Amino acid sequence: MQFTAILLTQALLLAVGEASKNACGVEPCAQITQMTSDSTNQDQTTTSVPYELAYQCLMSMPFDKDRASIFLNQVRKILEFQSTIDILKRYKMPATDILGGIDSIIDKVNNTSYSSQFEMDLDISNVISSAHDGHLAFTLCSQSIFNFEIDLPIVSISSNGLSLPDVYTLNDAKAQLNGVKTVSPIETINGTAVAEYLASYAFSQSLQDQDAQYNRVFPALARSVTNTPISPNGIWTTNGAWTEGSELSIKYSNGTTQTVKKTATPVERYFSYDNGTELYSIHCLPQSISTETASDSTAGAEQASEVAGFPDPTLGDASSIAGYFSDLTGLEDTAIMFLPTFAGSPSQVAQIAINFLKNATAEGKTNFLIDVTGNPGGYMSTGIDMSRIFFPESTPYTATRFRAHETARYLTQAYSRDYTDDSSNVFAYKETVMPNQTTRFASWQDLYGPHDILESSSSSLLANFNYTSSSTKVYPINGYGTIPLNPSKALFPAEKITIMTDGDCVSTCAFFVKLMKRQGVRTIAFGGRPKNAPMQGVGGVKGGQSLSVGYVTGFIQQANTLIRNAANTSSPLLTTSQWKAFNDSSPSTEETYAWSGNLNLRNEYDPEDDETPLQFIYEAAECRLFYTLDNYLKQETTWQAAAKAMFGDSGCVNGSTGGEGSLDS
Fold it and tell me: Which residues lie within the region annotated Disordered (predicted)?
């Protein structure tokens, strides 16, 4: 399909740009270009510009109704693959109708209610974020041009980890730590109680738990070593989203007030655009020659083991996996494993984990603490392997379903013949197994179903993948395939293992915690809103498979090739009418805008409940503590506090134990 016929003429684009000029007749984007040029000449790496000026620059991007209409119809077809799309209408925080939201945007496009690409992209982003699903994420062309900033770092701190925390500026909190008595906590922001304001500010985050969302506002040492888009200083100081108003009114509990202006920083160091039309053309329209440079997937692997806020590891590297023996009071009998990600080299992670567990037993450690603070996930096989390293005699249970819609049905039919060994292709029934890891599907219909599950048309239940065929030296799973069982028995009992989180545990991290909890491992959560109440240990997405939009369109392209090759044989894969229906229901593989996206292809289920996705099950941690300032500055002090609470007798936040879904409920 060609889109040249629907492009706005250059004259019309320029006319839209003219409307956004300020009173001096200078384009907002051109003003930012001049500011960043002056700054770059002074060898500064970043340049802050006025918040409103960045907004005016974005609003000066033109809007192409015809192109937008085609794009949104493709988005709607892509979202049919989102596994939770039906269930979200009835379950969540609050319920949301994603397809209905896209339909409303389509109506606005048809009624020419948008004047700027940025306006439409903002509406799309709001619809997508309403799912609170870390696997469902769109990067739209106008949404990655500026970061909006507030130069006032803040922290939520408790005096002892048990009392309700107050919000301080980071500088005031440090002054208080140094003995200054006159500092005061923040009472309100823009006239709203500070905790309420910050919870609302964080609500758009792609986490399903409000306490985990709240933690993202503030700094976290663990984020400095994880491959996550969330700044180590929190979303309060660097946020890619536009929020209304260019300044904040801060009131402190001692009655003093402060006005803080927001600023914006271009993502590109060399921002150079004369107007919104040029910005739109470069960022939004597909380019014939990619301007992206290839990145080395191993970049950062040689990162130094010394990380600010962390002690030197006993074994491993804090950027991937590290083991620690600490001399702090309360940690003498505890081995600590820091797991900031599951995206490191699977074989290296496995070997370090095995070696550290054996070292810990040799050193006489009786307790084991696993820190997954801020873990954004990674390889599912690594999460399964890690659970098997701790509990080699268990069989990790995985069970998923994909959404059984029209395009998925034709894909499953197209991939019904043995063509490749691709365990990531959920639609190829010969490559999949049932949750028991042994039973195969008899046909593509046997896999596809469909089944009515919570008013959602769903596939049959299948494992994430076949452990035996997927386990290799590169992606090991302890005791499967060619990988020997090592260790052959658990070195620490479940009651002597604790997992520590801040709720921001996502995807594979969430699944690893689930596998460990099934063995009886307890969790302790830190931070969250100032409430004497339980908090979830896992507040991130619990979906069964994250898949990029590019991967989806790749499946569609490959399926069309298979269908075409079989079309003139004695046994075609699809009839002519079915093939047409497949392509009519499928998203186009042509590029309309320069954008990217991810979705959750499969739901994950517990062995006791094959209908309710884990995504919609609340599971409180067994204990909760609030952060102290020491915890923000030294990660080792959080390990100390966690160990004293879980292996000692220092206690948990009042009212935080025995919560819904906890092992003690």
Answer: 293-312
